[in-house]
## 1
Amino acid sequence: MKPELFFEKLENQLLDEKPFVAYSKPGLRERETKAWLQITKQSFNTKDFTESGFVFSPFNAAEKTYLIPTEDAEEITTEYFAEENSEENISEATNFPPVLTNAKTQKQHEELIQRGIESIEKGNFEKVVLSRSEKVETQLKAIEIFKNLLKKYDSAFVYFWYHPETGIWLGATPERLLEVERNKFKTMALAGTQPYKGTIDVHWREKEIDEQQIVTNAIFENLKDKVSGSIKKSELYTSRAGNLLHLKTDIQGALDKSTKLKQLIMALHPTPAVCGLPKEKAKSFILENENYNREFYSGFLGELNIKSEKKRNSNRRNQENQAYASISKKTDLFVNLRCMKLEAGKANLFVGGGITKDSNPTEEWEETVNKTHTIKSVLVK
Ligand SMILES: C=C(O[C@@H]1C=C(C(=O)O)C=C[C@H]1O)C(=O)O
């Protein structure tokens, strides 16, 4: 479908106040942008993750997960090109939109981090991810922001979600929660942040390496009784996400036959990359101390049990090339980071960072400021 028509359909869906999601997966420059437009106005939720569709799930798993079921949706696709070198110079973009949040925020956030560090020192938990939200002005419409995200962030999962009960959310996340096809799964441990300054060949302090190691270890621990055989991991490497760099380990393996998708998702979510370790203690600290509702920030979103067809050509001799079509179901979920909730002329951005015993409150504040730049740079013309 031509991009003009694709975007027009999204706008009409928004005017009709019907749920939809449009998204593009990380990787290829000439990538596909897909959308699921819900046909009815009904509100769907999932509890057991057995349906086929697109899910939008909050940080707090006790709250509702929204679903756009494939059987109640029109699927459309287009090709929308990212610009050459689009991810360059983001931090040098000087015209960020005006901040509407008041100046108390830095002090409040540093105090929150200080409380987190003290709680770690008391032995309550090892790591906690603490976040804040920030409101900024924007003259752009949601669809223009989405186009900017697509153009700018070729290596992220870029999305535009709308549901009458959740409002409009947009983002460009570097973090995959889980990919599952047949009995194979993939996930990642992503943590540690520094600004990108033209090279990915950088030095990482022990603090960041430890922080990332906590995430890798926790994923291994949480998945150990859900897999068959051993879990494999890549070397630790530096990965770029727009104006930032992170430390990353790719993790993959085969699932045990008895493992249900829901069990697997809940074993991972929320990972210590967005919550902490141990999970429940860190989560309670977050819910009691952050003083605002994360809603869908640091939740997850993506394709759930979507049919995928693979055509394979057999190369057997003396046989004409035959196309084999094998159909399987695929799940591909991302952690909702570098995101915003959009309300008439205002964008509410969400940013956080991992706190360990070695964290420094002012540095952590600066890290959240840098994280806001990823989103702020798409809010101006
Ligand atoms: C919590 C966020 O990001 C997460 C926290 C990171 C960190 O603490 O260094 C790095 C990447 C993400 O796993 C965020 O972007 O808001």
## 2
Amino acid sequence: RRPKNFPPGPPAWPVLGNLVHLTSEDPLMNLEKLRQSYGNVYSLFLGSKPAVVINGVEAMKEAMVTKAADFAGSTVQETFVTPPLWCTIMADYGSTWREHRRFNLMTLRNFGLGKNSMEDRIHEELQHTVKILDQSAGETLSPQVMFHNVASNVICKILFGTRHEYDDESIKVMIQCFTELNKVANGPWAMLYDSVPLVRFLPLPFRRAFKLMETFLSFAVSRVNEHKESRIPGEPRDFIDCYLDELDKKNDESSFSEEQLVRQLFDLYLAGTDTTANTLLTAFLYLMNHPQIQERCQQEIDQVLGGKDRVTFEDRHNMPYMQAVIHEVQRVANTVPLSAFHCTTRDTELLGYSIPKGTMIIQNMISVLKEEGQWKFPHDFNPENFLDEQGEFVKPEAFMPFSAGSRVCLGEGLARMELFLITVTLLRKYKFIWPEDAGEPDYTMVLGGTSTPKLYSMKIQLRSTQ
Ligand code: HEM
């Protein structure tokens, strides 16, 4: 039964509620059909749990920005609570989340300054990528593993102070672990586990998520133990050292602990790898199939960088077209399609509807990223969506792939820097060609916590200007 003045929605089935709407072949299409029937704020039942789905920029801004504190709670997804840990992405809106969010942001920011800056780290990693691409010049390559390695190494350097060769088996296992976990999250089995407690003891595929988490846990714990042996207090080399320094200062009220450290490592690694990698994969899928857009990027890059050794993040201010292309890629990629599930922290209202405390909140990101009336070309891949009449870069308010408000993506700054430096460096040096025998490109995404382009190959050619 829907409470009084609760957002409307479809009738719910016994036991399963409206789970079928979210676990079908095309859940995003289902959510869109429900939006057309019930409006921008509607409700579903996941099992017996009520959830409110938010669509469109108006409702999203009211919930995530204007009433941020009311909507910033988290429905700890129980699939991920059960052994061994749960993490900040799902952490509730309280002092532990607040203290750790502040610490994580400050630590990421500190690594962005000074000699060993974030920009240097990304460029260091790019040297390895370029080596792989140089070896493949004139040939065809499958970029999935490569882009995951790039993103994983950037975040590994920050967290653990190490990078891994692209054929390193231990890191392949880790990347596989995160890619799979991201598919399990928001997937049918995780939802069934969360919504229907009766099934939890059955040997169903959600058990795989526990195994994957244990794999990461033992990896992270052994990194923390190595750091405890080799660190010099007060001279942090990476995130783990910074956290251990913080633990040394710990007082009774502090929420910092070794268990929390492992949770933070999980969060940052999970959230920082698959998202960036899949956005890069989407970028090159579109660029290969829109060669005129790829060429226009390359003209701008050549003109702005001239004989300069390497691109800097500051250069983006002189590259409106490149900026527009990267933002357009993020818009169509819809990389985190349902954001992270939130819940209301108190009884509140949204667009006139009453929403009680503890209600699950689902942000339907595509409803904003492709909202009619917000974009010049909502349903096409067209960088003009981010350019004004003078060809200057503009960012419409409906561009919110990182969500918005107090829980906005913590890695947005890092992700934006990675996307820009990696795309520009690679486009400057190579031409990326859709292989002749590859058939028509398939732009449909494989859904999960992150959405992924289907596997594809790319032909690499050194550009004649290089
Ligand atoms: C293109 C890349 C990325 C996209 C599209 C993306 C998107 C998102 C989204 C939609 C959320 C949920 C916000 C909410 O709860 O409403 C999120 C949360 C988060 N992201 Fe990202 N992200 C990206 C890259 C990264 C990177 C590189 C990091 C690592 C530093 C990161 C770390 C996090 C963390 C820790 C959270 C949880 C924040 C919190 O609950 O306080 N993300 N991200």
## 3
Amino acid sequence: MSEPNNTVPSEEFDPHASSLPGEVEQAVLDELYAIRGSIDNFDAQLVYLLAERFKATQRVGLLKARHDLPPSDPNREKAQIQRLRSLAHEAHLDPEFAEKFLNFVISEVIRHHQNISDAHKND
Ligand SMILES: O=C(O)C(=O)C[C@]1(C(=O)O)C=C[C@@H](O)C=C1
């Protein structure tokens, strides 16, 4: 039976899933798997961190809808981008990437805010 799209697949994550076995020495694969273990831990944290951020922005969206405030706040965004670029620079992360990432997240937040506002108006 196939699963509905909105559920977590029941299949276990295989941390050793790879297209490389047979192509490289086992020692190289072992080193790669060890590094990938850290990548997997980081990706899991990223998901939890983003979920927490969206929980907070959901509250902002409700507050804005209740008080009929616009979904976006361009001056706030400018300040956030400037701060994130500077943090990225200090952390040796490409500031362009940090800005693109923040803009990507914020555009999704604004879409959520708009949906909350539309739902609020139709109540
Ligand atoms: O702080 C707000 O006013 C928000 O709506 C949150 C947020 C963000 O995701 O950080 C999203 C949209 C705004 O343009 C600015 C910031």
